[in-house]
User: Fold this.
Amino acid sequence: MERPLHRLRRSPYLYRGGMALALLLAAVPAFADSSLPAAAWANRQLPDPAQEKAASDLMHSLRCLVCQGQSIADSDAELAGDMRSLVRSRILAGEKPEAIRGWLVDRYGAWVTFEPPVEPLTWPLWAAPALLLVAGVFLARRRFRRRAPR
Amino acid sequence: MKRVVIWAPVVLFALFLGMAVFRLSNPGSTDVPSRLVGQRLPAFALAPAAPGKPGLATADLAGKPRLLNVFASWCVPCAAESPQLLALKQAGVEIDAIAIRDRPADVADFLRRFGDPYTKIGSDPESQVQLALGSSGVPESFIIDAKGVIRHQHIGDIRPEDVTDILRRIEAAR
Amino acid sequence: MIAELGLAALWLAAALALLQFGCGMLAMRGSEGMAALVRPVAVVQGVLVTLAFVCLLEVFRVTDLSVALVAENSHVAKPLMYKIAGAWGNHEGSMLLWVTVLGLCGAGVALIERRLAPPALMATLGAQAAIALGFYAFLLIASNPFARLNPAPAEGAGLNPLLQDPGLAFHPPTLYFGYVGLSIAFSFAVGALLTGEVGPAFARAMRPWVLGAWIFLTLGITAGSYWAYYELGWGGWWFWDPVENASLMPWLAATALLHSVTVVATRDGLRAWTVMLAVVAFSMSMVGTFLVRSGILTSVHAFAVDPTRGSFILGLLVLYIGGALTLFALRVGTVREGSRFDPVSREGALVLNNLLLSAILGIVLIGTLYPLGVEAVTGEKLSVGPPYFNSAAGPLALGLVAVMAVGPLLRWRRDDLAPLARRLALPVALSLIALAAVLALLGPIGVMPLLGLALAVGVGAASLAPLWGRSLRRTPLFTWGMVVAHVGVAVSLAGMASETAFTRETLAAARLGETLSVGPYAVTIRSVAPVAGPNWTAIEGTFVARRGEGSAFALNPQARTFSRPPTQTSEAAIATRLDGQLYVVLGPQAEDGRWQVRLWWKPFVTLIWLGGAMVAVGGALSLIGRVLRERRAREALA
Assistant:
């Protein structure tokens, strides 16, 4: 994926697993990072294990905005760290995970969440398992014969 | 019925083909635009980012249309767009800024080297306001109208050819 | 010189493929002279294309920088193993590997296959040549691996450091033998449709090739998952990334095909479905190759994006997949279906198996392509990731595993529910005991992992059932294969469920000398020092871990910096124990001198890949068993 020079996203090289071969060939010379440390809750776990689990589950299902398809939990990008800090600090303050997800979707669209919203646009997606099973049974029904009584 | 079933795979493949052809001919951009265009600015109050310059709060971004520039001193394209911002300032556009993940000394140094078109600069050390705005990188610029509603988002640095368009939008936002 | 030899061999191979295609088509219509030519031509084509690939390997081995591909993907300072592996770690080289496997498989069929009626065999070899022709054209016109560079650079651009790893060096060839091996099934299916020979003979001819390709795919996907787990530093083993999905879809189709082919071979039912699956399996391979190389889907694994190459491959897809599906629609009427069977029977279970596998395949395909479809129609951008795939495909997969346990216990043609229930009583009881034990001893865990664990226990027991009450020495090898493979699935499921439910993670910023705890371990960070390797420098941490009163041991995670090309990677330190793995990652140092450290304790995570390996071993046993049985049958007749 080419990185347009007019647009700088944080740490294009330093995120884990984002080493697309093309990226290396695109040779952007100036990949700058800020010199500030990571945000307060970017790399610290919440003291309450239940809250940390809720935060972790949410972070694994939110998409990193500047990476090649990783979640914010799996990314070393600075913006991903700032998003993790946002998630953890809000969970600490008592906010529900779905509310935080909704807040981010309001700002970035459904693209930022790996769990597609259930709305008319995604009904075919969510209905697919049931539809496929029904279609399969329908196709297979003529292979069977009626059970003969013993 | 049997005909439908037998030809269904071909039809499905044709569907896949259509999507692939669409995507190959319109690669699309990797930019993630903000969904807040057309809505009010979120509420925030940021400390000053550079010595001698006031900080930035939502209340400051009202009264007349202005440009809100999201930048950082460590961002190379931000330096590249400085001449365009200075030109816009000359043309009478009020420009405020949010400095992302920056130290006061570095911001001051950046302004000294590349010019200072800003009235106020707020400091956003953990990108929280940047996230609240739906911005996903630097540099980005937002056109805010007199009522504090976001009217347009410009992703990336402002090129010389973009200046007239931005001026036009600022006029339209009166 | 070697490069030119390789290019010449490639052109010759392409010419022979054309000849093979022509002769095959003529032989199918009955020309005896042509029929005699086809086999030798196929064999020589295989030899020539292998020669071309060997030339590419040689050119990489000596790092001939006047070849453009070597200059872009290799470096004089790279270790030898990675120089050679660099041959297939790029687009052109891997496409050459693709046609090499195509040619070798065709040669193999030409040399080995004796049972299939000549018209069908000729049609099959002709179809194989037709597929090869398109990819030869792609290589020679749009992706020449032997193009020269003038002037030659002094050093070379280097290979992506993530690929400089033994596991990943050999992962592509394994996968390619799998993907492209499925082309034989595709060719057999096309040949059978063209000549109207869809029956037990066709199924028996195809079965060993499907098994062979499937074994490689299983190994390749398992190895790839393990590589991602230890190399990427996040402890994840499956991300539902589009490229991972592209490798999974052929495997799902091949698994369904494998089971379906047995029904045709032995009971002569499910003919149309088997032919369709054979077409779908290789089609999924080709779609996968298209998705990876065209750049239409964002992925961490994607090759360098080139839409023109993508368009060429799309053209090949239209030709082969469109052609095969149309042929199927036109000719499926000539496929006379075999006997029907009772719903409660082994055939019934195999139909259910096919159905569930096809549904899962459909879900993965739809989920992967849905964002693209939505963007094409509405311009909206969507992401579909693990939350969707896990909740949509997970329950179906659990159902599939349950069917896998029941199937082998059913008789062919018809069976009754009461005796089946008796046979299942013990496995079901074991499942329930496991369920209760987990809930009682380990506390509440998620529904899916809980079901997974309980099911794994029951299915493991049920999979051993075909061996009960039989003389183990006289049990056929292919029955052993089935048992080992099915138990392997249960083992892998147990690993997945355990990892999901019981992983413990500790993130901290630690000073030297500080002790952190994760799971049952206490981990102390002793020191951090710079080290150097052949083409990298690194910061290496020395951690000491201890479990209760046990002996302490050291772990040395690194943060590496490569110079050519400039990249950074994280090398996790992993300690494997009987009941899990301790996984330690060293991150950057903060301003106050503390080190960012990530620790995981992952109970029984190794079962995931052990199970995968068992599945592959089971497949190998099955393959050997079938081949031996057929050789004995032939000798008995002779």
About this structure: Helices of chain A lie at 21-26, 49-60, 78-92, 97-108, 123-140. Chain A touches chain B at residues 1, 4-10, 30, 32-36, 39-40, 65-66, 78-79, 82-83, 85-86, 104-109, 111-112, 139 (CB under 8 Å).
